[in-house]
Design a protein that fits this description.
The protein is an alpha/beta fold and 282 residues long. It has ten helices and nine strands. The two termini are 21 Å apart.
């Protein structure tokens, strides 16, 4: 039975970036972010990291799993194929539109999953409720990490497993204008709550009292802007939103875009970034 939790840290110490304000935005930008989340979820490097983490969670048919910060449920098909019809999937997220989409996805795919509003730092379930809990691309946006991980540990049974997938949104992109590339990467350093959290997962897991902590790094890379929907969706299609939010000067953004488009036409484009995953036992 669900129950109110005790905060892992005082709420006044909590912080979040723009992902904590999506309920206040008009539908169009939230829908656009949802499309980017969908593209990210099926990027091979993210799927590889997620698969590695799921193996580390030791889950299988019949397992009960919490996704803390589920977004629009884009990981559902991968998770559902593991826990099967006898398993139980629960997701929480603070964004109303994402929770609604996640429940629609579960219904369409006929997977035993339910999604509800909630905060990873105050999970609305009783102690030791799940076999495993995980988060993906969450600690970068809301924290502190200790508050989120302590709550995930609390709601996971003794002997169960905790996992996380995070990324460092620093893109190594082919560019003839390093200043514009620096400006592009500075968007994410400025806009995210905990930009460097992906590199410290082992530390945070150890501080949460978890055992047998394992981590792995994954490289996402391409030499073609159109090799996968993620690359154009994230690097190109979001630029107007970044400009509108004041995170990127319009002239600099236009120069950056023109440069990578020309490099793409000349078959000289490349881009890469790093993803980290962690799994450990309670």
């Amino acid at each position: 039975m669900a129950a109110a939790s005790i905060h892992a840290s005082p709420a006044q110490q909590w912080g979040a970036d723009f992902f904590g304000t999506l309920n206040e935005l008009p539908p169009d930008p939230v829908e656009g972010i949802g499309h980017v989340l969908d593209a990210m979820s099926v990027l091979p490097a993210f799927r590889d990291a997620r698969s590695w983490m799921f193996r580390g969670l030791k889950i299988g048919p019949g397992s009960s799993v919490l996704e803390a910060g589920c977004g629009n449920g884009s990981a559902l098909s991968d998770l559902g194929s593991i826990v099967g019809s006898k398993g139980s999937i629960v997701g929480i997220d603070p964004t109303t539109a994402f929770v609604e989409l996640a429940n629609q996805r579960a219904s369409q795919q006929r997977i035993n999953a339910r999604y509800q509003l909630g905060d990873v730092r105050s999970i609305p379930f009783e102690d030791e409720y799940f076999d495993a809990a995980f988060c993906e691309k969450v600690l970068i946006h809301a924290g502190p990490a200790s508050a989120a991980l302590n709550e995930m540990v609390r709601v996971t049974r003794t002997g169960g497993y905790i996992g996380a997938v995070e990324w460092l949104p620093h893109f190594l992109i082919s560019s003839r204008n390093p200043d514009s590339l620096h400006a592009f990467n500075d968007i994410f350093r400025r806009a995210t709550y905990d930009y460097l959290v992906s590199g410290s997962l082992a530390h945070h897991f150890n501080m949460a009292g978890l055992k047998d902590v394992k981590t792995e790094a994954f490289l996402a890379s391409t030499d073609d802007l159109d090799s996968h929907p993620f690359w154009r969706a994230f690097i190109v299609n979001q630029l107007p939103m970044f400009v509108h939010a004041g995170l990127l000067d319009q002239t600099v953004g236009e120069a950056f875009l023109a440069d990578i488009q020309e490099l793409q036409a000349r078959k000289e484009f490349s881009a890469s970034f790093i993803i980290h995953a962690a799994a450990a036992q309670k």
